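Work Package 4 report. The design task specified in the project plan requires that, given a folded chain encoded as structure tokens, an amino acid be chosen for each position. We show below one input record used in the internal validation round.
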């Protein structure tokens, strides 16, 4: 397969099905269905009532049809221009047919919503392994970095191939590539058609059938209205015109009923799945791993009390309400979703953001710019009013020119008035544009600030599963896409809405019969626009997700450029990036095709309406019921309505596309972290007492691999506790839990006698210090890196901390000293230099609790000696509670207590001397092994210093013991 074919395959794999989201509360969903059904039947009742009122008004409140003779009944029925019996019959047919279709659509929608969560058995069995296989495939496809389930494959040529065979393969690949280039567009179109067909359901067919039926009914009523001989034109014309309005309302409410039924079906399916999951967890005793959560909802927003129940029977209760888009998913099969919105408790459901909700949120963001907005809308009102007067003066000018007896002064007045309206429109239109442009720029800045604030406070679990490229894509691409419509589209929307409403009113004032006839085409236009908007919103949300994957692929490749160059995988990374951009392009092309189709159909309908206007309007002019100037004014107003509507459609399409990006932005802004750094009781100081009580923990991306299985540990204030064990045994996890990067799944961590979850995390961190294995540096000066996080400090304090960290000497050798910039991630410094700066950063904070996580494991011998010297000096000073993860036995043996972790549990705990007294214990075997190696080294069996250094490493000794 050629490069393009492989890129296509990757692009198809990366397309993820959009999750159906909505309220997950069955009670709220059932209430929505109830009121949607009530509203639908109320609309039908009002429709019939208006039709009967029309009939009684035509016949002096008497029921006139003569049912004694069939011929007389048919005669009354066929009296198209003078009787309304046919409207009564059609209303009855409409009520019966739409009622049946509504129930069918609701039933199909309910089943569709149910099967989105619980597929049919024959569907679940496809591909072998049921839903597990599907979930595995989905998880693999989402692993864009070649992570746990889908390692990045590097294509290469076998070493043993003769030259001719290699040339033939290149020729075949080039030929295949040419063929794929030709067939790429057709494949994408076929794939798009197949995807569209697979998404068409029985519910959609039923709803579309009801729409066609309503369209026929309103066209019939409209045609009757313009040809009817009204005895009382004002009352009866209003009643007949209102029937068209209620027919459209019935069509809309039927669709709303089907959507509500779909949400109810999904909510009931989710409840059943959660019940099955809870029963399965209790039956297999997995409560301590997964937890079983129950949420009592208060209305739709899911605000209530969350009760977390573990196997041990302990309960943690929090009354903090969650946003509606942040309810946690308990289903195990979704826990590995890459780049999903998640908190420390699990994945959160993101609700679909509709264009209307996006519009309201945008207005809320722009509320601070109220003076500019008021000014802009004032200018908008002036320009709209002046613009609506222009067609009237144009019609008058035509009548003035046609009428030879008109006074020329009146003609000149009309021309001057039209010119003044045009002048006012230009001046105030420019001011309006300026106001809304400034508002848009300020909203963009607000959005960027709020999103970064929302990202930076998310739980660490979110960053574990989200790539940097995904986050930068939200901060750049999504924010730009979301804010773009705010610059111009919102003002354009309001301006065109004013033109549309004003044009409609003036059309009815000019000729209400022409208006009734013309507006029969509006319902199909609105329906087509609504269908396309929903489809485009979902497609563009997927497109932005693929663009985020492309951004992530580029960010990952550029941040690891040395590795890419060392393995000569530039082509691989290029293909990986191109596969994402190609998938995004395919979705964009599909959206463009659908948009052009929707615009074409709407334009045909608009042209049809224009033909009807000119035909019927011409008849009225020729019969003397209308002036030519009125017809021209009506046509101009209709053109204004068309232009306004097309502009509104364009704005709505823009808002629809932007709502996909807005959902990705606002979901993060609205999502509150499960571990709130600002919640809890603030502490002024820490004594340093640490206690872990029966702590169980697993990482969300590996729920089936518990890291800690009931770890209990106690460290007194001012003591040094060393954690030792095999690689992957949970030592670093203990450090992460002490920093409260995560909360235990079960058990608790006590700091100074209080549950760590009850304390204010920011105040706790102010008295803690962490030196990790992978030192993080910022692209600023050395001084700024050492003082990172401190609001105030002096240069003398920075230098003192650097001296204690053995960093002052190498810093002063730089030409710029402490002002030396270290580059991105500290690339201009060596590993040992970065680590000593990290120690100086920690010392400057004067922490009461110090956590050292293998601070020297990745250094060379010389750098390690310097860093180790700084750490040994720090430990010897005392006065701090220190928990260290060390790989040197010489460091560990001086600790007050040594905790040996084995298989996620505490295998041994005590001082160096106490652990040596345990016969055949893990620690005792380590020491014995080291002494044996040291003896061999001194005896000449291993004479190198590197060998002696290796025998002092605990991780190496543990591997040898096992």
């Amino acid at each position: 397969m050629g490069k393009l074919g492989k890129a296509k395959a990757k692009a198809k794999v990366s397309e993820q099905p959009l999750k159906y989201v909505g309220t997950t509360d069955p009670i709220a969903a059932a209430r929505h269905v109830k009121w949607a059904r009530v509203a639908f039947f109320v609309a039908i009742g009002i429709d019939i009532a208006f039709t009967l009122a029309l009939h009684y008004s035509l016949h002096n409140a008497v029921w006139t049809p003569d049912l004694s003779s069939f011929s007389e009944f048919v005669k009354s029925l066929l009296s198209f221009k003078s009787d309304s019996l046919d409207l009564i019959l059609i209303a009855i047919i409409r009520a019966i047919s739409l009622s049946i279709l509504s129930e069918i659509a609701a039933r199909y929608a309910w089943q569709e919503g149910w099967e989105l969560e619980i597929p049919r058995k024959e569907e679940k069995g496809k591909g072998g392994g049921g839903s597990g296989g599907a979930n595995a495939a989905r998880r693999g496809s989402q692993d864009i970095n070649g992570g746990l389930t889908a390692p990045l494959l590097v294509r290469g040529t076998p070493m043993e191939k003769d030259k001719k065979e290699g040339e033939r393969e290149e020729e075949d690949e080039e030929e295949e590539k040419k063929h794929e280039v030709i067939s790429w567009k057709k494949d994408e179109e076929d794939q798009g058609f197949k995807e569209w067909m697979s998404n068409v359901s029985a519910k959609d067919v039923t709803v579309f059938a009801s729409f066609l039926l309503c369209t026929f009914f309103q066209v019939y009523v409209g045609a009757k209205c313009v040809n009817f001989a009204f005895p009382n034109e004002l009352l009866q014309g209003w009643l007949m015109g209102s029937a068209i309005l209620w027919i459209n309302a019935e069509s809309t409410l039927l669709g709303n009923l089907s959507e509500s039924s779909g949400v109810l079906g999904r909510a009931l399916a989710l409840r059943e799945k959660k019940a099955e999951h809870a029963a399965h967890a209790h039956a297999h005793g997995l409560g301590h791993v997964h937890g079983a959560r129950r949420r009592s909802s208060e209305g739709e927003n899911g605000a209530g009390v969350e009760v977390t129940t573990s196997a041990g029977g302990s309960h943690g209760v929090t009354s903090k309400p969650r946003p509606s888009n942040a309810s946690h998913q308990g289903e195990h099969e979704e826990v590995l979703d890459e780049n999903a919105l998640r908190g420390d408790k699990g994945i959160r459901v993101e609700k679909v953001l509709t264009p209307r909700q996006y519009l309201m949120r945008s207005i809320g963001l722009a509320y601070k710019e109220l003076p500019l907005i008021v000014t802009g809308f004032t200018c908008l009102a002036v320009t709209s009013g002046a613009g609506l007067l222009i067609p009237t003066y144009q019609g008058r000018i035509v009548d003035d020119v046609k009428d030879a007896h008109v006074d020329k002064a009146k003609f000149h007045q009309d021309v001057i008035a039209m010119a003044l309206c045009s002048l006012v429109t230009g001046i105030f239109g420019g001011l309006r544009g300026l106001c809304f442009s400034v508002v848009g720029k300020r909203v963009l800045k607000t959005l960027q600030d709020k999103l970064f604030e929302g990202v930076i406070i998310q739980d660490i679990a979110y960053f574990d599963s989200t790539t940097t490229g995904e986050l930068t894509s939200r901060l750049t691409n999504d924010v730009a896409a979301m804010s773009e419509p705010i610059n111009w589209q919102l003002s354009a929307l309001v301006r065109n809405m004013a033109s549309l409403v004003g044009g409609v009113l003036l059309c009815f004032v000019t000729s209400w019969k022409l208006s009734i006839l013309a507006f029969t085409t509006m319902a199909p236009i609105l329906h087509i626009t609504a269908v396309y908007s929903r489809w485009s919103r979902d497609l563009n949300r997927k497109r932005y997700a693929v663009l985020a994957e492309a951004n992530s692929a580029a960010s990952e490749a550029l941040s690891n450029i040395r590795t890419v160059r060392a393995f000569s995988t530039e082509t691989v990374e290029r293909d990986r990036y191109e596969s994402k951009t190609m998938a995004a392009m395919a979705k964009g092309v599909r959206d463009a095709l659908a948009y052009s189709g929707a615009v074409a159909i709407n334009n045909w309908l608009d042209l049809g309406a224009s033909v009807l206007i000119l035909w019927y309007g011409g008849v009225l002019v020729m019969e003397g019921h209308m002036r030519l100037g009125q017809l021209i004014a009506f046509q101009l107003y209709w053109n204004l309505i068309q232009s306004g509507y097309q502009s509104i459609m364009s704005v709505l399409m823009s808002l629809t596309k932007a709502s996909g990006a807005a959902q990705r932005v606002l979901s993060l802004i609205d999502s509150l972290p499960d571990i709130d750094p600002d919640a809890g009781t603030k502490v002024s100081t820490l004594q340093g007492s640490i206690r872990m009580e029966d702590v169980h923990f697993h990482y969300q991306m590996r729920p089936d691999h518990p890291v800690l299985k009931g770890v209990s540990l106690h460290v007194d204030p001012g003591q040094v506790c060393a954690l030792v064990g095999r690689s992957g045994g949970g030592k670093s996890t203990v450090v992460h839990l002490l920093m409260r990067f995560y909360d235990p799944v079960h058990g608790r961590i006590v700091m100074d006698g209080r549950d760590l979850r009850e304390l204010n995390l920011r105040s706790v961190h102010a008295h803690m210090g962490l030196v990790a294995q992978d030192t993080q540096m910022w692209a600023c000066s050395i001084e700024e890196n050492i003082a990172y996080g401190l609001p105030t400090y002096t240069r003398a304090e920075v230098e003192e901390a650097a001296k204690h960290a053995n960093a002052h000497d190498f810093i002063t050798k730089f030409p710029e000293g402490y002002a030396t910039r270290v580059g991105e991630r500290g690339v201009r410094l060596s590993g040992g230099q970065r680590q000593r700066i990290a120690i100086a950063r920690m010392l400057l904070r004067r922490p009461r609790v110090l956590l050292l996580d293998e601070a020297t494991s990745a250094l060379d011998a010389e750098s390690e000696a310097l860093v180790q010297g700084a750490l040994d000096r720090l430990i010897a000073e005392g006065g701090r509670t220190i928990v260290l993860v060390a790989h040197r036995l010489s460091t560990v043996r001086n600790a007050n207590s040594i905790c040996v972790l084995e298989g996620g549990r505490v295998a041994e705990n005590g001082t160096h001397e106490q652990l040596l007294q345990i016969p055949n214990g893990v620690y005792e075997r380590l020491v014995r092994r080291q002494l044996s190696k040291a003896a061999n080294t001194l005896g000449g069996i291993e004479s190198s210093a590197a060998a002696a250094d290796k025998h002092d490493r605990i991780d190496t000794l543990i591997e040898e013991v096992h």
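Residues 287-334 form one domain. Validation will be extended to a larger panel in the next phase.
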